């Protein structure tokens, strides 16, 4: 690993610690899968408000699989894009019940074969449920990894490959957790707080 990358990770560890934490509330693997699907283009805080009552109303994967589409749309409406999300959740849970006996699968191939599940969602499940080291590339990771010069790519799959080469395996999940916090508080998309940034000397876009 490059010395520069090690220095960046050391600073992130110092600022945010090395504890694994998921910002989405869940008790079971299928709940995390649904919460992650709902989090697309929506804040985790809002998803957690919605899922608090949602998971009481639908207490199992099979309850979601047999849900009424229009009713589920209304239940998840505050998360946005609710037509697509509701359709995908019902289809995804049907497959989990029918093909996987109610268990959320482990492999990337099986996960991404489910409706509405892309690599990002699959890697969230693999990292948090199965503790399989994986790099989750969301908007924060994409933007900030480019700024830090850890990748030059814009395609999430290529960024994922770059970061897997660049970062030590024990930081694959951790880096995502730390960068989400960093991206929400300091290196925001619209108006980054560059003067407060503890990584400014590593940033390709920071102008003195």
From TrEMBL:
Required cofactor names: [4Fe-4S] cluster
Domain HhH-GPD: residue ranges: 38-185
Binding positions for [4Fe-4S] cluster per the UniProt entry: 187, 194, 197, 203
GO molecular function: 4 iron, 4 sulfur cluster binding; class I DNA-(apurinic or apyrimidinic site) endonuclease activity; DNA binding; DNA N-glycosylase activity; metal ion binding
PROSITE patterns for this protein: ENDONUCLEASE_III_1
SUPFAM superfamilies documented for this protein: DNA-glycosylase
Keywords from the named record: 4Fe-4S, DNA damage, DNA repair, DNA-binding, Endonuclease, Glycosidase, Hydrolase, Iron, Iron-sulfur, Lyase, Metal-binding, Nuclease
InterPro entries in the cross-refs: DNA_glycosylase, Endonuclease3_FeS-loop_motif, Endouclease-III_FeS-bd_BS, HhH-GPD_domain, HhH_base_excis_C, HhH_motif, Nth
EC number: 4.2.99.18
Keyword flag RNA-binding: no
Function: DNA repair enzyme that has both DNA N-glycosylase activity and AP-lyase activity. The DNA N-glycosylase activity releases various damaged pyrimidines from DNA by cleaving the N-glycosidic bond, leaving an AP (apurinic/apyrimidinic) site. The AP-lyase activity cleaves the phosphodiester bond 3' to the AP site by a beta-elimination, leaving a 3'-terminal unsaturated sugar and a product with a terminal 5'-phosphate.
Cited HAMAP family: Nth (MF_00942)
Protein name: Endonuclease III
Organism name: Clostridium scindens (strain JCM 10418 / VPI 12708)
Gene this protein is translated from: nth
